[in-house]
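Schema walk-through. Below, the input block comes first and the output block second. Nothing else is stored per chain. Lengths vary across the set, and this one has 161 residues.
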Amino acid sequence: MTGNVTIKVKQFILLEECPQEWKKLDLYVIRDEDSVFYVGQSYTAFQRVWDHIKNAYKWRSDVGRFILCNWPKSMNYVIELLSSSSHEFDSVGNNLSRAEEMLIKMYKPCFNISQNNEPSPIPQIYLPPSSVIRCSRSLQKLRYQAEQAIRNDERKKWLEE
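--- output ---
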């Protein structure tokens, strides 16, 4: 079975198609180093994360809006793609909905309302999804900015060596 995938938003946004080995990953977590923003499920988690981002401009996804309202900081958010059939979810019979519920109970994400009695507050360093989206509406421009950020990271890493 395919292992979990952990990827930053700036790397994720450069992927136009889901890599074949990721297609069976059916759970996703969107977070930064300290907070979990959202946990979700879909038969193809990769595609569902893309739906969040694309639907943000139309107010159809709070977590998608949250990513775009906090651009470029949000380029460093992490997306984890997981499989409900992994050993980590054996205790819930590898059931997709129960695996999602398990993650929600464990992380108490900011934007999950269902099955989450105590959602974590949005960290104060971030703008809420009700804020004005200040980044470009052009996915091409967002991809360009992500590429630039990755190049800058590589340059910094190279200079530190």
